Amino acid sequence: QVQLVESGGGLVPPGGSLRLSCAASGSIRGFYVMGWFRQSPGKQRELVALMPSGSRSSANYGESVKGRFTISVDDAKSTVYLHMNALKPDDTAVYYCNYHNPLSQSDYWGRGTQVTVSS
Q: What does the DSSP 8-state code read for residue 92?
């Protein structure tokens, strides 16, 4: 079992910045991928950013956030961050942290944190 707890969401004006955090605990071992997805009302959940363990330079980003968002990991704290800059109203969504182990096909999700971009 893996537990994921997100924090850092809130209301931010267009053009602003925000940092989300996801603290992971439990059976975190071997090769895995951690990252962020988001979902807004009426839309499917979409990829924001993913980063595999052991290859911190191989981050993968959704097209709509490339150049604005950055994912990072603090291995000592088992925490993954999402640094969001130049936020747009279209970035408004619930952001979910995800842990995926491709060998065991296990998949865990956090409860989500709301990000609202509005003036």
A: -
